[in-house]
Design goal:
Blueprint: H1 3-19, H2 32-51, H3 55-68, E1 72-73, E2 85-90, E3 94-99, E4 110-115, E5 120-131, E6 134-142, E7 155-162, E8 168-173, E9 183-184, H4 200-203, E10 211-214, H5 227-240, H6 244-249, E11 251-256, E12 261-263, E13 269-272, H7 275-290, E14 299-304, H8 321-334, H9 340-349, E15 351-355, E16 358-359, E17 381-384, H10 400-412, E18 417-419, H11 434-440, E19 443-448, E20 450-452, E21 459-462, H12 463-479
Parallel strand pairs: 1-2, 4-14, 4-15, 15-19, 16-20, 17-18
Antiparallel strand pairs: 2-3, 3-14, 5-6, 5-11, 6-10, 7-8, 7-11, 9-10, 12-13, 13-21, 17-19, 20-21
Bound molecules: manganese (II) ion (MN) (2 copies).
């Protein structure tokens, strides 16, 4: 090769660098210090996953973490000052945590919103029955699941039972090594000829999601009506003090009994139940706790419930309760009653990250994705300008200006990011809470951690994405419009 050819090649490479753009894998085994920080962070994250298997438990865990870091319960009628760290629990299933900034609250807050509910099985109002000498519990699934994934696997029972006397009993059975677990039976392959001809959505049907709960009858002989069910009810009454009537009003959730684990020879991934969307909840919470203070703009982290069923309900993102907390905080900081238009302006000047997981590209199921427009495990926090389905139906579709502002902020602070879509066009789709904040008039964009096997009993995230998402949230809280 002569010198001229070499020069030409160099110029083309220079041009390519200048003009083209792509996202890169972020693992850097040579950076030992960061490797350690990533592994340590994820160790704590796994604990959070194990502690918070339901929305209620995650909120309890979050409050514990916040209080240990100097946060106190927000009192509506008390003033708030710069540097104050407060939280407000929302009916035990959602949470707003805040660090008060030094700036005029009317200039807007920086918010991160994630959800802490995950797909699961809920007990029906009348769950318990006996059949053929077994005691079982009827369930109704919550959120989008592949029902067959829930059979023939150990399950735990979590929730609250409120007794006739108004006493609340918290249940968590199946997590400790010597706890019993529960399960949903599947058919043996020997007799599965008809079952195996069914489509996957019918292999295990909704009314077949029956949880095996016992098989020792009440002593006294087989004249006793429903003696198997009575045997379990007696045990529950003796052990916990509640009756079948109390089960009617209870909220009991059946979740995988497995603990979060490191995945892979190199332990580079976290496997566990409920990472959608507790991975974003945890990283956001940690970012708020660790953010360098004083913050200029007040930072808010909102943990919503009910995302998996459409964000309805008093604890879901559609509830007016959440902007109401924000408005009350503005009043507490201002020390006077803001006008309606001031409050609306405040919402419009606020900036938000709608923090939810995305689908990591899965080489085993590559055909559902556009590889150029999918997010990948190992490339950091994933931004989604829009979500939705069938021609972007049901999306908030962030403005170019806002998308650019947020990503420029990250780049200026050396935080990598990536972007993609949820699968190929018309392959399916999904939604998040972003649309509900944009309904209020707030600038918002979706972002979060890519997940493999999303909505399964064992979801997978890359540890470096978890860590880099935390870094991104920290930068956003510290520096967005500050
Ligand atoms: Mn989600
Ligand atoms: Mn989900």
């Amino acid at each position: 090769m002569n010198q001229e050819e070499d020069k030409k090649k160099e110029e083309i490479e220079e041009l390519r660098k200048q003009l083209t753009f792509s996202f890169k894998n972020l693992w850097d085994p040579e950076n030992e210090e960061e490797m350690q920080a990533i592994m340590d962070f994820n160790q704590d994250y796994k604990v959070a996953l194990d502690r918070g298997k339901t929305e209620r438990e995650f909120v309890d865990y979050a409050i514990e973490l916040l209080e240990a870091n100097g946060y106190r319960a927000y009192e509506t009628d008390k003033p708030l000052a710069a540097g104050d760290r407060v939280y407000e629990a929302v009916h035990g299933k959602a949470l707003v945590a805040a660090v008060i900034g030094t700036a005029d609250p009317l200039d807007g807050f920086n918010l991160i919103g994630a959800h802490v509910d995950s797909p699961r099985l809920d007990l029906k109002p009348n769950p318990m029955y006996e059949s053929d000498e077994l005691t079982l519990l009827k369930t109704h699934y919550y959120g989008g699941i592949k029902k067959y994934q829930w059979a023939a696997t150990p399950l735990a029972l979590h929730g609250v039972v409120i007794t006739r006397d108004g006493e609340t009993i918290s249940l968590s059975i199946g997590e400790e090594a010597d706890d019993p677990v529960f399960t949903i039976t599947d058919l043996l392959p020997h007799l599965g000829a008809d079952q195996m001809k069914k489509t996957a959505s019918q292999v295990i049907e909704g009314e077949e999601l029956n949880v095996l709960a016992g098989s020792i009858p009440l002593p006294g002989g087989d004249d006793i009506k429903e003696r198997f069910k009575l045997g379990v009810l007696k045990l529950l009454f003796d052990q916990y003090g509640f009756t079948e009537r109390d089960l009617v009003t209870a909220e009991i959730e059946i979740v995988p009994a497995t603990k979060a684990r490191c995945v892979g020879f190199d332990r580079s991934m976290v496997g566990g139940y409920g990472q959608d969307d507790r991975v974003c909840a945890y990283t956001a919470l940690k970012a708020l706790i660790d953010a360098d203070t004083p913050l200029k703009r007040t930072g808010l982290v909102i943990l919503y419930d009910k995302e998996e069923t459409g964000s309805g309900g008093i604890t879901g993102a559609r509830s007016q309760l959440f902007p109401s907390v924000q408005k009350r905080m503005v009043r507490s900081i201002l020390g006077r009653e803001p006008s309606a238009i001031e409050l609306q302006d405040q919402i419009e000047k606020s900036t938000m990250l709608s923090s939810d997981v995305s689908n990591a590209f899965d080489p085993t199921f590559a055909s559902v994705s556009d590889p150029k427009n999918n997010t990948y495990a190992g490339r950091g926090i994933a931004f989604f300008k829009y979500t939705g389905a069938r021609g972007k139906g049901g999306t908030s579709d962030a403005n170019a200006e806002y998308f650019n502002e947020v990503t420029r902020l990250l780049e200026a602070n050396d935080v990598p990011w990536q972007t993609g879509e949820l699968g190929k066009v018309d392959q399916g789709g999904g939604g998040t809470v972003a649309i509900y904040q944009s309904d209020l008039g707030m600038s918002v964009i979706d972002c979060g951690v890519p997940v493999l096997s999303m909505h399964s009993c064992f979801e997978i995230t890359s540890k470096i994405d978890v860590y880099k998402t935390y870094e991104a949230y920290k930068v956003f809280l510290e520096k967005m419009r500050s």
